[in-house]
Amino acid sequence: MENNYIIQEITPLKESDCFYLAERVKDSFNYPLHKHEVLELNFIENGEGAKRIVGDCIETLEKYDLVLIGVGLEHGWEQHDCKMENVHEIMIQFPSDILSESLLQKNQCSSLRRLIENSRKGISFGMKACETMKSKIYEVMNTEAGFYRLLKLYDLLYTLSMQDDCHTLASGSFTHSTDDVDSRRVKKIEDYINRNYKNEIRLNTLADLAGMTPTSFSRFFRLRTGRSLSDYIIDIRLGHAARMLADSTTSIVEICYDCGFNNVSNFNRIFKKKKGCTPSSFRADYRNKTRSRMARQQAIKKKDLTHKKKEII
To answer: How far is CA 101 from each of CA 64, 105, 109, rounded to the nearest angstrom?
Structure first.
């Protein structure tokens, strides 16, 4: 099954502009799953109860929601349990080269480099970070359009890059992305896990690859990736499982064992804990979206054909 229901959005951002900024107040979430070739910073206020989908990650919104979405990463919002009628949204879209590659390699921009790298999976900022960043976002909004507004955006992105109250969303295997981490040892370990996620992966094997003791390696891996080794391996396996659930008709039992899990009940429990739903619900949700998207496309085509016939007559 192909994910052809995902809209490839052509954004309003012009090649001659550094970024595009939009503010709106709405009473519903009705824009379908989509992706685009620019980064997007999206701030939502009063959206409690709505669902946010980024890759294979589905989360429910609280009072504030602030996410940074990377290039080509599918995302969208659904009404779900949101009852608010005054949802306030501020969206800033900007190209990946707003910060040049040579600039990002400088020591002073290391945090910005990590921010852009992590945006490939999507980054969600917690309530504490939202409270901090809200004023920065409004500063960008309230600054007169031009060079000084661009400086405010740079300041906003840098402050975002220094926030600890955040987490990545989609799994790397689902987004077909890899992290450009600083450590060659971590990259070597990541490559090994990506090649062997279907099999049992032993701590001692990975520690030997890194040339470290198991205890030192575990501490090193957590410091460099922000996750424990076991969590990282689980996320990789779940990412592959989510992709198979979305793209194939393979049974859940087969997917479980093919992705390195040793029993179905354990797979179901971990999947629900991490994704917020069971594997069968995840697959059904994607298929429902596919059918809805195809129905909308057919309705649009039918309407266009009817319009053309009237013009001919």
So the answer is: 32, 6, 10
* CB distance 87 to 29 below 8 Å: yes
Q: How many CB atoms lie within 10 A of CB 204?
A: 10
Strands 39-45 and 57-60: unpaired
DSSP classification of residue 105: T
Q: What is the DSSP letter of 76?
A: E
Which residue from 8, 114, 24, 132 is spatially nearest to 68, judged by alpha carbons?
A: 114
Using CA atoms, how far apart are residues 270 and 293, in angstroms rounded to an integer? Answer: 29
Give Cα 170 to chain centroid, integer Å. 5
Task: Give the residue from 251, 245, 240 showing the smallest Cα distance to 277.
Answer: 245
pLDDT digits over 5-26, tens only?
578 888 898 888 999 999 999 9
For 58, 68, 81, 265, 296, the CA distances from 282, given in Å and listed in that order, are 10, 23, 18, 16, 21
CA 120 to chain centre: 7
Kindly report the pTM of this predicted structure: 0.61
What H or E segment, with its residue span, contains residue 92? strand 87-94
The encoded tokens of residue 86 equal: 């005054």
Those residues whose C-beta lies under 8 Å from the C-beta of residue 290, and which sit 6 or more positions away, are 1, 3, 5
Cα–Cα distance for residue pair 186/162, rounded to 1 Å: 22
Q: Any bridge partners for residue 39, and if so which?
A: 94
182-200 pLDDT, tens digit per residue, is: 457 788 898 899 999 999 9
Q: Do residues 89 and 41 touch, judged by C-beta distance below 8 A?
A: no
- The encoded tokens of residue 208 equal 């030997």
Over residues 139-189, the pLDDT tens digits come to 999 999 999 999 999 999 999 999 989 999 988 666 655 444 445 778 889
